[in-house]
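Inputs:
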Amino acid sequence: MSVKLFDYVVIGSGCSGAMAAQTLVEAGVNVTMIDVGKQDTTYAPLIPDKHFTDIRRTESEQYRYLIGDELEGVGWGGVGKGEQITPARRHIMQATEEYLRIISDTFSPLESLGYGGLGIGWGLQCWQYSPADLRAAGLPVGAMTKAYETVSSRIGISGSKDDAAQYTLGKLKTFQPSPVMDENHERIYAKYARRRAYFNARGFFLGRTPLALITEDFQSRKAYAYNEMDFYSDKDRSAWRPWITVDQLRQHKNFTYLDGHLVTKFAEHKNYTEIHCLTVPDNKLVIFHCRKLVLASGSLGSARIVLRSFDNSDKKLPLLCNPYTYIPCLQPAMLGKAMGDKKLGFAQLSLFLDEAKNNFGLSVASLYDYHSLMLFRIVKQAPLNFADARIVMRYLMPALEIMGVHHPDNLSSDKYVRLVADNTTPTGDHLQAAYSLSADDQATYSQRERKFIGAMRRMGTYALKRINPGYGASIHYAGSLQFGKQQQAYSLAPNGQLHGTRSVFVADSSGFNYLPARGLTFTIMANAHLTAKEALRNV
Amino acid sequence: MNHEASVFSHYLTKRQPPTHAQALYAAKVAEVASETIPPREQRQLSFALSHPWCIGLLDGGLALVNPHAELRRRIYIMFAILEASNQHHQYFLVRRRGPFYVIYVVFVGIRASLKAMCGLVLLQLLRKRS
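Outputs:
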């Protein structure tokens, strides 16, 4: 049987895979993207191009995409993974329990086999890492600064050069204006601006969140229309999703998209690399050959592939994940107000706590409102009967503010993953994970959260409670195959090449040696671009 | 099951559910019915359905002592279905309110607390009766 030989193969269609593939395609080489590529074909066609409120008032079939044909968007459990994912985006998790099983008492990650990977549900926050962050993560500062610019020019980013620009946009030059801020956030920002010196002296800096959301028409995409359907639909493509780039790449002759295949492992031979795949869903083994392999399956996905390929069942790989807490807050000045026309489901403001004022090791809070996720998701949190809770929560809704706090993460022996044999999964294994924070880290982060709550109080917004959704809920994973100059197994050279291989590169966050609190996606994409360039160079 | 859907819809909005809501509710309840419901929660559910006047009391009491009780789950399912219906949007969409509306909301809060207290007593009685 002849086995197909590809030139460059990229594994995965998420943020890193899309960026790496674009760099390779633009360089003119032949690229094949291998992906499982689950898509939503049920709900997306049903969602009208209308404002959320109009839909709620007029559309008789709204229940299908708001809560799901089988009410799959109505969760009755806790606050853990996937709880807030709406039916139109639930394909993000489809088949992961079967193919990407992970077992842990302490760590509950979200992974994806969807077309666009975790980027399907990404919150679009595009923070640049500071030079100190980049150095600690093992990334080259100069090259990454240029790479951020490249990514921004590809995907379209909106942002503002405001008080927090040093923490958000860094030196980025290519960006559009931020979307219009709603009244909730305008009030918070005005209160911050009035007492700026007070907040800055205590290490707080507030500014607009840079988003991969266009506010002006860009390439073939339309500017954000404030339809408030951010959690349900990408109809106008104003929000960048990885599949938008992959769709565009599929128009090129030197790009092939191969879906329905889960890459399980690779083996290097003299002149080629052998890739083992399982077809999904019928689980047949398929083998391809390639000259260059770029893994972009996410830190956990790449860990699985590398562990299987090196066949070392005892090996523990490190794990980084931002600890995350979300804090529902209330801004009494907004009680009884109508919801404005120009609402936005994505984060509108970012509040940084940088007590050392060195742009390193800080924590960050994203501020956003909750309106379009509907009442039913929050009403169960109220210790009231549902009939009265409906009246109370409906009144509170315009004043409700969600503050999501992320903290940085460092390596420790208490955070790891390893592969365990499991004959109940199609791959014959599952990932076992452990994650715990030291008592010192827990105390530091708890103290920081109290400071965030105090700062918000001074901005007229009062915390209702702190909710810890558990480790893994931040959906920021990294560090499984760390960057290192020494030729150690299960680590990456600074150019992204997997040590011990000639032609295998890792373009996702696996190499990061440190995980800053600022969301990692923009950095993942910039790094993927650089890694792809290195793969081109390394012949 | 249609009766159950009607009872909960009336409890939440004082209106009958739309036709599609009954089918959705029945399908979802059938799906969760495979899970074992503790006998005590089954009794609470049966009692609430046969005495709809006390649903608010039991719901309020359970919100404090067992917020994930089966009765509350069923009410919650109907809540989500009604919220995603254009025929019931006026009960869920946010509206501008005058400054005195807060008095009504405080009243509702106090009423909910009283219901919860009565509900706790009722739950105790139900437990003793069994």
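Remarks. The two ends of chain B are 24 Å apart (CA to CA). Chain B has a mean pLDDT of 92.
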